[in-house]
Specification:
This is DUF1329 domain-containing protein. By secondary structure, this protein is of the alpha+beta class. The protein has eight helices and 18 strands.
């Protein structure tokens, strides 16, 4: 009997260690005061390099959807304060990630242009209100990783106590009800010794059923976190193939893939985590996109703390639909004229693959921007403990959304020298669109993101 009681006590302790969130009413009262509505420090850094929070970004002039966003940003004419390269990398190393340092030292000609810092990543009032209303209610489930309770859309853990809470802040940062890309570019640089790159173009649509105005729970919509749809227009080998993927708050991903040769939709139960994407020469895994996509359950996440580093920020150049891919994509890295780095405070989170599980990159270090909670930079390590992939999300305020998001992702492979650009409209002539109300796109329903729907669409 005593042993049974001890086992029950240990089980209860494990449960509460996962679920309990030792944040008080006093902590929550700081939101909107010394902290922003989503938990960032309002004050700037003591040395003045990071300014105080400036409030929500607004365009200048007459910006409307479809016009190049960068042309209407009030700081568009700024010049770099300095440029970091191989000759001065050691001088700035304390504010660089290991992956950034290795890129600068390893890749000839690679540079990082550093600009003045601007903190203009706010959220709409209803997201701020949900964050405060739900902060003491948010909970991780007893499995240790799934988001069980939250008032969404919000930042569920604005004062995080552990790594998995911080990661959920990123995974459910406010993105509206959906994002539509009429023509999204993915670019794979040439192999060593070759000059032949590959450009992929596709129509894509993301769906966040918890992201519309109001108050939503993870338990709604079948616990669906994210619905993803895309169909390739090019290259010819992939044209017509398409995918619908469903990611959940607490269960395995569902993936449906349309194969043109078979004229059939197939369910791909293993097409998640580190499975290589079809058609990318084993360079791009499913969960690599946007630094981390999909479930975080294969890793133990440790919240290391805050630090100041140079991260991609206000990178409007990578959203220029009228730019040419050839102007952006150099032979070994993205043209620095299309990159912009600023000094920001970030949360450092280290993910280590769980005992009994496997992953091709068993260690991940992710840096979350304190203002937006977006994963700004990530370093993936291989089984030998070497940095394999250095990844970046290009963060910008999205004016129609009233919040920041990423619309540009770059992955540099430090072992074979190739890189990938994704989630951008470069060269497409058409802008992406953030959708706040699901009524504005009839596809933003649970029934659209199914295998049956993909079959019907693809058969047309």
């Amino acid at each position: 009997m005593k042993m049974r009681k001890s086992v029950l006590a240990l089980a209860a302790l494990a449960f509460f260690s996962v679920n309990a969130w030792s944040v008080s009413d006093a902590d929550i009262a700081k939101l909107g005061q010394e902290l922003t509505a989503t938990g960032a420090e309002k004050a700037g850094s003591k040395d003045g390099q990071i300014p105080a929070f400036e409030g929500q970004s607004k365009p200048v002039g007459n910006w409307t959807f479809g016009k190049p966003r960068g042309d209407y940003w009030k700081h568009k004419d700024e010049k770099p304060l300095f440029v970091i390269d191989a000759s001065n990398v050691d001088k700035y190393a304390a504010k660089l990630t290991p992956g950034q340092i290795q890129l600068l030292k390893q890749v000839p000609g690679y540079t990082m242009p550093v600009y003045p810092t601007h903190r203009e990543c706010g959220v709409p009032d209803f997201v701020a209100q949900n964050t405060k209303a739900g902060a003491l209610k948010s909970a991780i489930a007893s499995d240790g990783w799934s988001l069980d309770e939250a008032v969404l859309p919000s930042i569920p853990f604005p004062v995080p106590q552990n790594g998995i809470q911080a990661m959920w802040n990123f995974l459910v940062h406010y993105q509206g009800a959906g994002t539509a890309y009429p023509n999204i570019l993915t670019y794979l640089s040439p192999r060593t010794g070759s000059t032949q790159s590959i450009e992929y173009h596709s129509e894509a649509l993301g769906y966040y059923p918890w992201g519309s105005k109001g108050q939503h729970s993870p338990k709604e919509a079948g616990r669906l976190t994210f619905g993803n749809y895309y169909v390739y227009a090019s290259p010819a080998a992939l044209a017509g193939q398409g995918t619908i993927q469903r990611t959940y708050f607490g269960k395995d991903v569902d993936t449906f893939y349309y194969f043109t040769g078979q004229r059939r939709v197939r369910r791909l139960p293993a097409y998640s985590y580190d499975a290589p994407m079809i058609g990318y020469e084993n360079e791009y895994t499913i969960d690599s996109t946007a630094i981390l996509t999909g479930n975080p359950d294969r890793f133990d996440w440790k919240l290391v703390g805050k630090k100041e580093i140079y991260i991609p920020y206000n990178v409007y150049a990578m959203q220029n639909m009228n730019a040419k891919t050839s102007d952006v994509a150099g032979p070994h890295f993205v043209n620095p004229e299309f990159r912009r780095y600023e000094l920001h405070r970030v949360w450092e989170v280290v993910g280590t693959v769980k005992s009994g599980m496997r992953h091709s990159t068993p260690k991940k270090v992710i840096y979350l921007d304190e203002d937006s909670w977006i994963a700004a930079v990530g370093d993936d390590y291989d089984a030998q403990g070497k940095i394999w992939k250095a990844k970046e999300n290009d963060i910008t305020p999205q004016w129609e959304l009233g919040a920041c998001n990423y619309n540009g992702f770059v992955q540099n492979d430090l072992i074979n020298g190739r890189y990938i650009i994704d989630l951008t409209v470069i060269g497409s002539g058409k802008d992406f669109k953030n959708i706040q109300d699901p009524k504005d796109d009839r596809r933003l329903t649970d029934s659209f993101f199914t295998g049956e729907s993909l079959q019907a669409i693809s058969a047309q």
